[in-house]
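User: Sequence for Ribosomal RNA small subunit methyltransferase I below. Tokens please.
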Amino acid sequence: MSTLYLVGTPIGNLSDITYRAVETLKRVDLIACEDTRVTQKLCQHYEIHTPLKPYHDHNKEKETMRLITKLKEGCSIALVSDAGLPLISDPGYELVVAAREHGLSVETVPGPNAGLTALMASGLPSFTYTFIGFLPRKEKDKLSILKQRMYEDSTLIIYESPYRVEDSLKAIMKVDETRQISIGRELTKRFEQVETGQVNDLLDAVKSHNIPLKGEFVILVEGAPNQKDHQWFEEMSVTEHVEFYKAQNMKPKAAIKAVAKDREAKTSEIYNIYHEI
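Assistant: Structure tokens for Ribosomal RNA small subunit methyltransferase I:
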């Protein structure tokens, strides 16, 4: 039976690929990849002669069903991203959904992941973490996500372009300028760099070029302190607290109930303060 293989590829160092991944890429009939030029370098290194087919965000609507047709005709296809795991902030979701809808076999061939690689070396808590991927470009949308997520007791894993690292660090500072973060860049490559410290210190390091804006970045943000020791909302007024929940698309009544629960107060008391009764 034909199979769609989801194959993990190196995030930098070409040696970071499994025997199974190389064997799979050699055995399949077609490799669907983001950028044929990038995948061709990997193929040349491991003497993989399988034909390559572009599959990326700009052509996935028309190419998804073409690949499904090939799978139904008996071809086996490997899906790869430029680096790391397909589907993880990379194309492939629509193809996997379509393959399952058509009753086709989908098999994963694991490999490296930039977020977890950075987390291991960061020194930040690694027992609970939340993968966010890329933050929105607009500051308002960026802050909306950070304000929601940075109050959770979970280390955040964020991917970022070198062109937007400074903006993202400034947004993190607006939420909590004392929060511990870690920056990983050029992971597994010759000039790999992982730096951990308060966000304001690492922003200064970026501005002074001690952390060069080159390569793909992973930003890790330490989770909020345990609420038993520090209430995340303690510097907010009741009105600001309610508005925070409303910004998460809660209706006013639900937001007031949530604030009352946080503050261990009566709902009517919070209602009266919020409405200035």
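Residues 60-72 form the longest helix (13 residues).
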